[in-house]
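Lab notebook page, bench 4
Experiment: in silico fold of construct C2
Operator: M.H.
Input chain length: 363 residues
Purpose: comparison with the prior construct
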Amino acid sequence: MSNRKVVMVTGIANSWGHAFAQKMISEENNLDQQKYSVIGLDSIPPEEEIRGFDFIQADLRNSHLVELIRTEKVDIVCHLTFPDSIQSTSSSFDINILGTMKLFGACAEAGVQKIILKSSMAVYGARPDNPSFISEQNSLNGSRTNQYTRYLVEVETFCNSFKKQVPEMTITVLRFANIIGTKADTPISRLLKEELVPKLMGFDPRMQVIHENDVLDALLYVTKNDMPGIFNIAAEGVLPISKIIALTGKIPLPIFHPFAYWGKRFFGNANNQLLKYWPIEPDYLRYSWVGDLAKMRQELGFVPKFTAEEALREFTREQQLRRFTPETLDLEYDETSLKNTIEKRSKGKEVDLSRVDLQAEEN
């Protein structure tokens, strides 16, 4: 009988679910004795194949979710369904909010030991009266106009009441700072991929960042260790937005701050072109929202590999490599894709030939 724990990763079709599943499987393959098996759950299949895990196509609102979790004997659920940018649609509330509620309820009913929720420090909100360092006990005053932040606030509010109803379950919430990385489709990464970066005139708020690899390391860390509670997660170092722009080699574009609010009000989130050049709410570029990392250091015991400056320099280096060697990268991807296709077709032919031989022997 296997003693491996079963980890279910939701949102396996999005970038975070996909990357985390790959990391877990890679870690397990490097061990002599495997301790975890991974199940990926999503309403749509992932675009890229991940070897070493079971994919189950299902919506979080599916009425048979409890039965599935119980049958698969799931021990840990890593909830990564939320993308870093949610476009406003008629079904997004049902999928993200009601889906999360149904998932948590199913986990409680099926006896899941632990749930891990990826969240963001943006839930604190960017306000002029914010303390210098915001602790995990601070009120959630995140933007109500930004769909992603509003949904996270609602999910965390639900999560707080859920913990009281199921005190025996380990629930870990990781509130990440601005996630930086060439693979991470986050507001800060999109902002810093442009040559001109908007900056509000007269404001230079302090900000925190964390490298995308450290995000995956933190998720893996709390998967392997039972650490209940809410934790701010960020790289060491707090930088003003002006220095962040300078470190990434971009050019600041000063904007009179009322214009930024007028533009968001008139165009809203419906204008994709505006979102490309202004992916962050103006308040988050106007006021500081710096999280206190004492719990991360002392209670959680997690240390990100990259400091804030190192994460930004690494982001800049990777961005430059992609810019100057796109043809090489495309060729490598094409060669890998063709090699995988040949292997699959060869295996398929071997299976077909064995069937022909078996039929000939029977005749």
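Observations: DSSP finds twelve helices and 13 strands in the chain. The radius of gyration is 23 Å.
Next step: discuss at group meeting.
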